Amino acid sequence: MRIIRAKDYADVSRKAGNIIASVVTLKPDCVLGLATGSSPIGTYQVLIKKYENGELDFSRVKTVNLDEYVGLSKDHDQSYAYFMRTNLFDHVNIDQANCNIPSGLTDDPEAECGNYDKLIASLGGTDLQLLGMGPNGHIGFNEPDEVFTPGTHCVKLADSTIDANARFFATRDDVPRQAYTMGIWGIMQAKKVLLVANGKNKAEAIRAAVTGPIDPRVPASILQLHPDCTIVADEEALSLL
Ligand code: GLP
């Protein structure tokens, strides 16, 4: 694991944006695994700026997102499909037909999840997977559990995740209780993994993921086994290392 120390959130975003930009520059038809949550928003803004400056071309880039809430349509303003359009896709020259996110409204969850893994494989895997991390160490929506689940699957969200994400909804009751998430195989097959983290509330999860045992109760700890994993985090998130 490579840990890059950043001064603050802007610096995390700049460094992470530069890493993703280098992947797109070296391989214009790359497959990017993308993440939602507040952590990557600044990274997406850096990518948008680079596109606007003529430094980056997304026309041949394909994407696969980590997860989606069960029951939210792609037009719901808290769906991850909506998040990706408003925070990145609508602002760069990506072909949105090449942007993939599990459907929150599928009536056949098993097929949706199985097909998502087949899709990742058919794209030749991801060149870079961007990750945020929940305060409990979750990646995508792989919540702390007794085992690591490899494939895309439906998860029951942890109470602490519902609490953490309630800030985006009108009330806590509006937060969906389940989500579809890429599993640990989907994340670990990426050629590069890039995790961004900032703030004190991520410090304990970073400590456990980086220095603790590899344990499904801290899902991000599996990243210790990835051959090319970079964490870009600010001083606060790294304060317990
Ligand atoms: C959600 C997403 C995760 C994300 C996490 C952290 O639970 N499913 O992919 O990493 O939020 O969010 P934030 O970056 O807002 O702390």
Task: Outline the fold blueprint.
Blueprint: E1 2-6, H1 9-26, E2 31-34, H2 41-52, E3 62-65, E4 67-69, H3 80-87, E5 99-100, H4 109-122, E6 128-131, E7 153-156, H5 159-165, E8 178-181, H6 184-188, E9 192-197, H7 203-211, E10 229-234
Parallel strand pairs: 1-10, 2-3, 2-6, 3-5, 6-9, 9-10
Antiparallel strand pairs: 4-8, 7-8
Helix pairs in contact: 1-2
Bound molecules: 2-amino-2-deoxy-6-O-phosphono-alpha-D-glucopyranose.
2-amino-2-deoxy-6-O-phosphono-alpha-D-glucopyranose binds at residues 35-39, 66-67, 132-134, 140-141, 161, 165.
How is this structure best described in words?
- The protein is of the alpha/beta class and 241 residues long.
- The chain has helices at 9-26, 41-52, 80-87, 109-122, 159-165, 184-188, 203-211, and strands spanning 2-6, 31-34, 62-65, 67-69, 99-100, 128-131, 153-156, 178-181, 192-197, 229-234.
- The strands form two sheets. Strands 1-10-9-6-2-3-5 form a seven-stranded parallel sheet, with helices on one face. A three-stranded antiparallel sheet has the order 4-8-7, with helices on one face.
- Helix 1 packs across helix 2.
- The longest helix has 18 residues, at 9-26.
- It is globular.
- Residues 35-39, 66-67, 132-134, 140-141, 161, 165 line the site of 2-amino-2-deoxy-6-O-phosphono-alpha-D-glucopyranose.
- 2-amino-2-deoxy-6-O-phosphono-alpha-D-glucopyranose is lined by residues 35-39, 66-67, 132-134, 140-141, 161, 165.
Low-confidence stretches are: none
Helix content: 25-40%
Beta fraction = 15-25%
Spatially, the strands of the biggest sheet line up as 1-10-9-6-2-3-5
**Rg for CA atoms:** 16 Å
Query: Average pLDDT across residues?
Result: 97
What structural category arises from helix and sheet content? alpha/beta
The coarse silhouette is: globular
